[in-house]
Amino acid sequence: MPILNRAAEMQDEVAGWRRQLHQQPELNFDVFKTADFVTARLREFGVDEVVTGLGRTGVVGVIKGRHGEGRTIGLRADMDALPIHEVTGKPYQSQTPGVMHACGHDGHTAMLLGAAKYLAETRNFAGSVAVIFQPAEEGGGGGNEMVKDGMMERFGIERVFGMHNMPSLPVGQFALRPGPIMAATAEFTIGIKGRGGHAAMPHTTIDPIMIGSQLVAALQTIVSRSADPVEALVVTVTKFHAGDAYNVIPDHAEIAGTVRTLKKEVAALAERRMREISAGLAAAHGTEITVAYDANYPVTVNDAEQAVFAGDVAAVVAGEPNVHRAMPPVMGGEDFSYMLEARPGAFIFIGNGDSASLHHPAYDFNDEAIAHGMSYWIKLTETALAA
Fold first, then answer.
1. In this structure, what CATH number is given to the domain that contains residue 269?
2. Do 157 and 195 belong together in one domain?
3. How many domains are there within the chain?
């Protein structure tokens, strides 16, 4: 089956929703306008139950099939944007300076709304589908907050599925894998205590910039010399703050960054070595170095059986040659991981074509993907909840 005729017919309408959402991006949990938009559409569609305020600002709509009682599955989309200034120049570009939908969550939300409208019209399944619209995927852990609010138990969700667009993957194609598909994330901040002084008299100081430079280089050995070469690990320093004058060695420096892994044991190794390296450099220079290490999202792990199921559904929509079932893991993080820890399910990528990369100020969701994504959600629901 190619994309559904009804999904293709709805594409312009759903693209209109997407572009409206694109113009009013919101950050973290403060997705009030977006949640109101989602809530209004779900009520217009006549879904059986609409619950707001889950995970602070999340929305869940429940659609019951026409073929009697049965199991419940969950379909999830994310709603929040990023603190990036948009440079696409599109007529519908962000109207909020410094904030934009640079990850396609506007498209994810619109596609799931389109699928919800279709499913509420047809109800050609047994049981129920919960359409989940979550806040704060971009670092706030909104998925975790919805899980902690008892979402799975409240709606009786037995399996849960997520989808994300992927630039460079052609429109009309899908990609996934069983097991780890996206990385666990952690954030670190390292403070280096120095002894400031005149830049022309470095021997009277403890230079935190020099120590920090050594530390940045030394942290790279965690990947190159401490971790097994076949294991996936990223240690990236993204901040280095110190000093504010040409002729003054400062008292303090701070570096910060991120760690990405696909295994808990490797994450533990990275944290241990970071602390050991920092302590060693502190001892060598006769100073103090403090390490704040905060584990963030866990590994996103696709249940093996549900990954096969999701791939089979995608193959019905796109054709088997257009489904990449063994894609390499992505070292970005994803808080759908919390939902997959709570229930078996699968996370799949949908092609966004030749677009700018995610989190880039020139990125835009490709509206040509809408009918493919809607068709996937619809076919997945009707297959998982077959009468």
1. 3.30.70.360
2. no
3. 2
Based on the number of CB atoms within 10 Å of its own CB, is 249 exposed (0-12), middle (13-18) or buried (19 or more)? buried
The residue among 277, 295, 313 that closes a domain is 295
DSSP-derived letter for residue 251 is S
On whether both 161 and 196 belong to a single domain, the answer is no
The answer to whether the beta carbons of residues 180 and 294 sit under 8 Å apart is: no
Please give the residue range of the domain that contains residue 260. Answer: 184-295
Contact yes or no for 145/90 (Cβ under 8 A):
no
Q: What pLDDT, in 10s, does the model give residues 17-71?
A: 999 999 999 999 999 999 999 999 999 999 999 999 999 999 999 999 998 888 9
End-of-domain residue from the set 264, 295, 326: 295
Report d(CA 190, CA 259) in Å as an integer. 13
pLDDT tens, residue by residue, 176-191: 999 999 999 999 999 9
3 state SS for 3-71: CCHHHHHHHHHHHHHHHHHHHCCCECCCCHHHHHHHHHHHHHHCCCEEEEEECCCEEEEEEECCCCCCC
